[in-house]
Amino acid sequence: MVAAVLLALLLIAIYVVVRSTSLSAVENVTIVGVEGPQASETRKTLEQAAVGQSTLGFDAGALREAVAQMPSITGVDAHVRFPHGVQIEVHQRVAVGALSVDGRKIAVATDGTLLPEWDAAGLPIVNGGRATGGRLVAEHRAAARLLAAAPEALAAKVTRVDKTTIVRLNDGPALLFHDGQRAAAKWMAATAVLADPSSVGSTWIDLRVPERPVAGRGAPPAVPGPSEPARDLQPGATEAPAANSTATSEGITDPPAAGTAEAAGSVGGEVPTGESTTPPTTQQQP
């Protein structure tokens, strides 16, 4: 019994000595998951908070405290590698767009959080977006989610988002999403339409039904404001243009046959900012 107690005391003493000396001091720090223009500064801050700690009693809270003033950082995890290593995993919001406030661009993350420490140059503008408490108001967060879902090739061409769900490209038609639902499928549909060389000249692509994207020229279909629910225009609806019809500067044409060039849209002219979004009228067929 006495021998067991002595052994336990010896092990505790060894643990304390190793923990409190350089025998277990953190010397090698690996940091993963950091992005953005301040990535280098963030890595340096975390490294300084980690080096010198003991791998036998590593304080991950010190890391979180070090980056507490960085809104883009949502979490930090530490994985100790005895005797001298630690891997730090950073969970971070990534900027996808920007808000214009008093002539200054402020980066916006996927969840609508404002990221003032992020360089907003080159990011698409969420036109008319409003923020409170350091975050976009709920009705404008759909714009950030749409931008986050954009494939890389198209994301590089986006200049702004109007009315929360109208995506404007620097060289191509306006993309009418109507809402934030099925964003990935709608971006895929837009990519397919834009890749069709026979449909050059479209000024808008209606993506409300991604399986049947509709492209047209002239004034695009009306798009609900951010506080209005998107109307579900199914084939056969009396509202114009329906999901299987095409609007042109001359009016509403007959629905194009599936698989034809007319059923797709493409890059071409851009709808001017001030152009009316009121759809042409049509009469219900008997």
In short:
With 286 residues, the protein is of the alpha+beta class. Helices cover 22% and strands 23% of the residues. The chain has two domains: 2-92, membrane protein fhac (Ubiquitin-like (UB roll)), CATH 3.10.20.310; 150-263, no CATH class.
Number of strands: 16
How many helices does DSSP assign? 6
* Helix content, binned percent: 10-25%
Biggest sheet overview: 6 strands, mixed
β-sheet strand percentage? 15-25%
Arithmetic mean pLDDT: 77
Pick out its properties.
286 residues; alpha+beta; Ubiquitin-like (UB roll); 2 domains; six-stranded mixed β-sheet; three-stranded mixed β-sheet; 6 helices; disordered C terminus
Written account of the structure:
There is one protein chain. This protein has 286 residues and is of the alpha+beta class. It has helices at residues 2-20, 39-50, 60-66, 141-149, 152-155, 183-194; strands spanning 28-32, 73-81, 85-92, 95-101, 104-109, 114-115, 125-126, 131-132, 135-136, 158-162, 166-169, 174-176, 204-206, 214-216, 246-248, 251-253.
